[in-house]
Automatic annotation (TrEMBL):
This is alanine transaminase. Homodimer. It comes from Daucus carota subsp. sativus (Carrot). Residues 105-467 form the Aminotransferase class I/classII large domain. Pathway: Amino-acid degradation; L-alanine degradation via transaminase pathway; pyruvate from L-alanine: step 1/1; Photosynthesis; C4 acid pathway. It is an enzyme of class 2 (transferase). It holds the Pfam family Aminotran_1_2. Gene3D superfamilies: 1.10.287.1970, Aspartate Aminotransferase, domain 1 (3.90.1150.10), Type I PLP-dependent aspartate aminotransferase-like (Major domain) (3.40.640.10). PANTHER family: ALANINE AMINOTRANSFERASE, ALANINE TRANSAMINASE. Its EC number is 2.6.1.2. Keywords: Aminotransferase, Pyridoxal phosphate, Transferase.
Length: 481
């Protein structure tokens, strides 16, 4: 009798990597357990997780209106109780009642239509229309468990062999490299320009596309992450127009990761969806395929554990849409709480609703705090010898560059680690601060970075800066050439 060994499993799984929950994080969890079992066993008293965009794990409060609606939907019997009027706002009760009437049998524990509950898709389409000032069709919307399953579905659809490629930004969110690997395709990198605030240069896109073609790779799609992860930039509308034109001319599907659309921190920049930009340019439904991804995990809501999201699929032929529907059907449906949340995020309380003022106050408090945290961390990094950090215009991350001494690079080589992974491991051991090495996101060869979230509670941000400053100063002194 022989059991499965590591050599027997799918080599694509072995090859796939996901740095955001990688080696450094596993070590951090062990250190946290040490601190619980043996307080004082390390030179810090708590682990400060700056590795993943998981706001509520770092004490961000959920939006009250969203949770009131969810609570009523999950337990509709409370609508018949007299005390409910005093416990929940009138508009949350009204909205929950409307949603329950859209759900067959009013049961959030039942499967839904594979594409998502029709009434919720209607609401999301109305929200997209209000955001973009262009029509949205509920039949274009596929509700998903967060944005990730939508990305996987599109990779599964587009990639048939290693000769099929997807243009991806470098640095990139490792979901893309992982899903391309799992589905057997080839990642075609285009490098963002750190010197221009992580700008996307059209000449770089053209060069990489031609290079891929010369190697016999058929490039099917272009991924754009806006606002950027891990880089935090917000694209200008002009840049977006150039990207749309490039995809139109080259016959590429535009895969627009727009999950951070609610996270823009600089007044001079605004979020514009790629579908809106394409429509402003005069391109209609049949002119260019745009697939956009949205999630309830990010923004000001941060409902990561609820696993809600959607993709809006426009410009693809009917027979291709049928295949996407088939893939969605294999998964039966997205979870119902996530579906409800997606509709609430895209169509929140309006002026005149009882919850409107408290909703706006909660939203603005979270976003203004995130903006302050981003600025404090950015300044803290830029005050350190050998670190340069671009401005965080949006999203939830900073991606500072490490200019390390040769001695440190040689020590990393001796430890068989990438220099930024060596740095991140030393940082964790000395301070309890968890960051993700830039090598997990890919980067320009010969450069080293790390990704740091802006999510620790605002009162803990000075401690992050202080610990990092003390560590970095000692590290640079230790390895000074």
């Amino acid at each position: 009798m022989s059991f499965v060994t590591i050599n027997d499993i799918n080599p694509k799984v072995l090859k796939c990597e996901y740095a955001v929950r990688g080696e450094i994080v596993l070590l951090a969890q062990r250190l946290q357990q040490d601190l619980q079992e043996k307080p004082g066993s390390h030179p810090f008293d708590e682990i400060l997780y700056c590795n993943i965009g998981n706001p509520q794990s770092l004490n961000q409060r959920p939006i009250t209106f969203f949770r009131e609606v969810l609570a009523i939907c999950d337990h509709p019997a409370i609508l018949d109780k007299s005390e409910t009027q005093g416990l929940f706002s009138a508009d949350a009760i009204r909205r929950a009642s409307e949603i329950l009437n859209q759900i067959p049998a009013r049961a959030t524990g039942a499967y839904s239509h594979s594409q998502g509950i029709k009434g919720l898709r209607d609401t999301i389409a109305a929200g997209i229309e209000a955001r973009d000032s262009f029509p949205a069709d509920p039949n274009d919307i596929f509700l998903t468990d967060g944005a990730s399953p939508g990305v996987h579905m599109m990779m599964q659809l587009l990639l048939s062999s290693e000769n099929d490629g997807i243009l991806c930004p470098i640095p990139q969110y490792p979901l893309y490299s992982a899903s391309i690997t799992l589905h057997g395709g080839t990642l075609v990198p285009y490098y963002l320009d750190e010197a221009t605030g992580w700008g996307l240069e059209m000449s770089e896109l053209k060069k990489q596309l031609e290079d891929a073609k010369s190697k016999g790779i058929t490039v099917k799609a272009l991924v754009v992450i806006n606002p950027g992860n891990p880089t935090g930039q917000v694209l200008s509308e002009e840049n977006q127009r150039d990207i749309v034109k490039f995809c139109k001319n080259e016959g590429l599907v535009l895969l627009a990761d727009e999950v951070y659309q609610g996270n823009v921190y600089v007044p001079e920049k605004k979020f514009h969806s790629f579908k809106k930009v394409a429509r402003l340019m005069g391109y209609g439904e049949t002119d260019i395929p745009v697939v956009s991804f949205q999630s309830v995990s990010k923004g000001y809501h941060g409902e990561c554990g609820k696993r809600g999201g959607y993709m809006e699929v426009t410009g693809l032929r009917h027979e291709i849409r049928e295949q996407i529907y088939k893939l969605a059907s294999v998964n039966l449906c997205a979870n119902i709480s996530g579906q409800i949340l997606a509709s609430l995020v895209m169509y929140p309380p309006k002026l005149g609703d009882e919850s409107y003022e408290s909703y706006i106050a909660e939203k603005e408090q979270i976003l203004s705090s995130l903006a302050r945290r981003a600025k404090t961390l950015e300044d803290g990094f830029n005050n350190l010898e050998g670190i340069t950090c671009n401005k965080a215009e949006g999203a939830m991350y900073l991606f500072p560059q490490l200019h390390l001494p040769q001695k440190a690079i040689k020590a990393a080589e001796a430890a068989k680690k990438a220099p930024d992974a060596f740095y991140a491991r030393r940082l964790l051991d000395a301070t309890g601060v968890v960051v993700v090495p830039g090598s997990g996101f890919r980067q320009v060869p010969g450069t080293w970075h790390f990704r740091c979230t802006i999510l620790p509670p605002e009162d803990k941000i000075p401690a992050v800066v202080h610990r990092l400053t003390e560590f970095h100063t000692a590290f640079m002194d230790e390895f000074r050439d």
